[in-house]
């Protein structure tokens, strides 16, 4: 049984921090538990008071079940048991039990017990006004300092007062307990960053969403852009983001690019070695000159040093030969990444449903794509060529300082590195909300600009130029306000980093100068230390924590685009549509865009092969919806749609749409030539086939009157053409496709009477022996009718009334045309004389 004789061990004092080549155990095991208990007690107490006063008990359904949370509790309990066991074991086996060992065990037990209590409070209660996610700063700081303290023990690796040598059973047990503490505290810190036992979203937001879901579970789908919480950590979902990045990091299918990647990584290793040898050879030059070595020896050393500097470069390896060569070779890999990202995202956007595209903001989406693709390139470069090299430089510097100088230099580097990285991450997390808001305002400004330019004619119609310019300027001002906050917080971060680096450099330089003046080091050692300090400083400055976080922020909108799911998907093992005759069947079809407002209710009808069916009804009655369902822009919510007896939801969309041609009511053309717009119906069509389709659509003669003919540019969305011309181009495009089933959604709504008659004649030829569904509008009415044309005329009612009005309009148009021709012929004759005039 040990007896408590003194606070510190023999030949030791708490005032002596450095003893026998390491940190004094008395000083270390007094300082660490005191700091941890102070943080746990004071910050934890404030934390608990806030949670009790301003928090609310969370409903069990919102608390996630997590095995990692159970692991957090288990690790904390294990550490508690370890501290108790270590104290009891040492008291039972050691001849002398120093007072600091009792303080270390007791304070550590209290600190970790308080941390467990904080963990359970956060699990059960939530702050009402808290919009952040994850553990509190008190817990994260506690775990971070506990893990850092265990790492600090490495500084005393060569000290005989510590247990690294495993000289006896007592040292072996203490080393085993340290391993347990190291692993447990490290796991707690890294698991704590993910906060597995807490809701993934702010608690009040979850409650509000739950209430909205209960009140109305069927809201119209909107594109999920900019729904990221303002204070959400960019490291949230880090594993998922990395999984998305991995395919772009390794260029599959290209052995040449893969070899380039490996070669660039090899050059990265060469750079690390060069960074070590540059200060060493500089020190050798000083030694050679001091020792008055021969000219040949000095010249050789100088040449090797200059060669290494040439390979390294002048600043942070950015302008050295090796770095430039690596950057040059990496261009191909970067281009591959950029191409793959954009192509995959573009293909994904085209796979999304019509519902999503109707609600999107084009400027928003385009800006998100631009920022996202550029940020992926930047992020991959940062991860491969900045993070790993920086960590390697730091580790090499610490090892070299401890080995060549002493542990004090290693301690300075370690403390400087820890403070630098910790404060960089904390401040960068704090300024995340400014960067997100800046991106949001940037998207808003670009959206307003794109929307205004696309609606140029409307702006002119209402003399709204000043209004649009004012709106755009207001959006720019909001963006600049957010940009100022982002830049100001960046300046604060840079100043903090400079302060830490300057303090570490000052401490290292003063210590090195002291040892030189005391005769413990040579003057060349100061040169070596200065060179390593400079290289370490550059490594820390180049650590891309801020850039990585900015890249993650810039990628968030793009990741959300990738997360958008296809509403209409091909069924598993879906086959091609086997077209036979073209029989269309709607059987008890139900559909609604919004829950509670059915557009189609128990709709059933059949279109026989080669038959033409007109869908007549008021606006909003679901006529165009039937066209969209048949084309599978949406899937029915009840019933079934069949073509030749095959359920269209069970066949591939591509094969279905290959047999269907659509002439929409609102025609939008690509900003390309008329020829290419018509050829879009069948890309492989020849120029002659394109012109034949234009003749059938009654637009060929009009095209030939244009100066550039078929090579005429139609402008953005076809604005250079009239409404009738655009619609006839769309009809020609469908004619060129030569589909077996034709869907006409008010195909002649934008045409004059004569052109409409010509187009109807052309469409009649095209629709011959083809199943056709035609959409037409009528005045509002409460009922619906479904019969043959002659039967509906005899019955009277809506259809007969509409037909009569249509005939009257056509007769009126014919009379107007005849009168116009008569007037024209009269104008050509000499005026008659009359006595009455």
TrEMBL record:
Q: What is its EC number?
A: 7.6.2.5
Q: Where is the composition biased (Low complexity)?
A: 806-817
- Record field: transmembrane: 27-50, 71-89, 101-119, 139-158, 178-195, 259-282, 379-402, 408-428, 499-517
For whether the record's keyword set contains Membrane, the answer is yes
State its location(s): Cell membrane; Early endosome membrane; Endoplasmic reticulum membrane; Endosome membrane
Extract the PANTHER family matched here. ATP-BINDING CASSETTE SUB-FAMILY B, ATP-BINDING CASSETTE SUB-FAMILY B MEMBER 6
Give the UniProt family note. Belongs to the ABC transporter superfamily. ABCB family. Heavy Metal importer (TC 3.A.1.210) subfamily.
Q: How would you summarize the oligomeric state and partners of this protein? A: Homodimer.
Q: What is this protein called?
A: ATP-binding cassette sub-family B member 6
Gene name of this polypeptide: LOC115383764
């Amino acid at each position: 049984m040990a007896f408590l004789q003194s606070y510190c061990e023999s030949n030791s004092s708490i005032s002596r921090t450095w003893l026998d080549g390491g940190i004094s155990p008395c000083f270390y095991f007094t300082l660490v538990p005191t700091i941890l208990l102070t943080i746990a007690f004071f910050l934890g107490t404030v934390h608990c008071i806030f949670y009790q006063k301003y928090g609310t008990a969370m409903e069990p359904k919102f608390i996630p079940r997590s095995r990692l949370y159970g692991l957090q509790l288990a690790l904390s309990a294990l550490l508690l048991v370890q501290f108790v066991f270590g104290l009891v074991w040492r008291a039972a086996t050691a001849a002398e039990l120093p007072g600091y060992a009792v303080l270390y065990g007791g304070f550590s037990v209290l600190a970790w017990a308080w941390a467990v209590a904080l963990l359970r409070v956060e699990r059960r209660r939530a702050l009402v006004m808290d919009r952040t996610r994850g553990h509190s700063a008190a817990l994260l700081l506690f775990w971070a300092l506990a893990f850092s303290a265990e790492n600090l023990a490495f500084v005393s690796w060569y000290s005989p007062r510590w247990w690294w040598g495993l000289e006896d059973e007592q040292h072996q047990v203490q080393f085993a307990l340290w391993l347990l503490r190291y692993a447990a505290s490290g796991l707690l810190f890294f698991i704590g960053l993910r906060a597995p036992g807490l809701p993934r979203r702010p608690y009040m937001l979850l409650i509000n969403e739950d209430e909205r879901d209960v009140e109305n579970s069927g809201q119209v789908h909107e594109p999920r852009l900019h729904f990221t919480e303002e204070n959400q950590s960019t490291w949230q979902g880090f594993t998922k983001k990395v999984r998305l990045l991995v395919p772009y990091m390794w260029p599959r299918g290209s052995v040449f690019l893969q070899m380039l990647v490996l070669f660039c990584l090899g050059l990265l290793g060469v750079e690390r070695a060069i960074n070590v040898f540059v200060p060493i050879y500089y020190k050798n030059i000083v030694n050679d000159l001091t020792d008055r070595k021969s000219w040949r020896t000095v010249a050789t050393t100088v040449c090797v040093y200059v060669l290494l500097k040439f390979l390294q470069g002048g600043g942070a390896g950015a302008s050295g030969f090796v770095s430039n060569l690596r950057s040059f070779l990496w261009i191909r890999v970067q281009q591959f990444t950029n191409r793959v990202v954009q192509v995959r995202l573009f293909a994904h956007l085209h796979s999304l449903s019509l519902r999503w595209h109707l609600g999107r903001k084009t400027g928003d989406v385009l800006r998100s794509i631009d920022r996202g693709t550029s940020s992926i390139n930047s992020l991959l470069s940062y991860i491969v060529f900045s993070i790993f090299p920086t960590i390697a430089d730091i580790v090499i510097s610490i090892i070299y300082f401890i080995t060549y100088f002493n542990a004090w230099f290693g301690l300075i580097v370690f403390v400087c590195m820890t403070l630098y990285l910790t404060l960089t991450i904390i401040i960068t997390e704090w300024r995340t909300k400014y960067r997100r808001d800046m991106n949001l305002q940037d998207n808003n400004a670009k959206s307003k600009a794109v929307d205004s330019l696309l609606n140029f004619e409307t702006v002119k119609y209402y003399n709204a130029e000043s209004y649009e310019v004012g709106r755009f300027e207001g959006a720019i001002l909001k963006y600049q306000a957010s940009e100022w906050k982002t830049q100001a917080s960046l300046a604060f971060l840079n100043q903090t980093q400079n302060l830490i680096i300057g303090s570490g450099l000052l401490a290292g330089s003063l210590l090195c100068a002291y040892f030189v003046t005391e005769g413990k080091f040579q003057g060349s050692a100061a040169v070596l230390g200065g060179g390593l300090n400079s290289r370490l400083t550059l490594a820390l400055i180049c650590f891309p924590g801020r850039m990585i976080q900015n890249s993650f922020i810039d990628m968030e909108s793009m990741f959300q685009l990738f997360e958008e799911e296809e509403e209409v998907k091909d069924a598993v093992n879906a086959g091609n549509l086997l077209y036979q005759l073209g029989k269309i069947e709607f059987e008890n079809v139900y559909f609604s865009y919004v829950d509670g407002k059915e557009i189609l209710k128990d709709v059933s009808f059949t279109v026989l092969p080669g038959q033409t069916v007109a869908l007549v009804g008021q606006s909003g009655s679901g006529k165009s919806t039937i066209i969209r369902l048949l084309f599978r822009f949406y899937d029915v919510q009840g019933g079934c749609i069949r073509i030749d007896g095959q359920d269209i939801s069970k066949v591939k969309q591509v094969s279905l749409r290959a047999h269907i041609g659509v002439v929409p009511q609102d025609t939008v053309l690509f900003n390309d030539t008329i020829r290419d717009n018509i050829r879009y119906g069948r890309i492989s069509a020849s120029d002659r086939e394109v012109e034949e389709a234009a003749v059938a659509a009654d637009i060929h003669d009009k095209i030939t009157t244009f100066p550039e003919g078929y090579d005429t540019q139609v402008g953005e969305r076809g604005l250079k053409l009239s409404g009738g011309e655009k619609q006839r181009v769309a009809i020609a495009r469908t004619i060129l496709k030569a589909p077996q089933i034709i869907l006409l959604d008010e195909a002649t709504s934008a045409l004059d009477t004569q052109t409409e008659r010509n187009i109807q004649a052309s469409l009649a030829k095209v629709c011959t022996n083809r199943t056709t569904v035609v959409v037409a509008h009528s005045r509002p009415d409460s009922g619906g009718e479904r019969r043959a044309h002659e039967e509906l005329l005899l019955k009277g009612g809506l259809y007969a009334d509409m037909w009569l009005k249509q005939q009257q309009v056509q007769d009126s148009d014919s009379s107007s045309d005849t009168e116009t021709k008569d007037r024209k012929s009269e104008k050509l004759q000499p005026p008659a004389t009359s006595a009455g005039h």
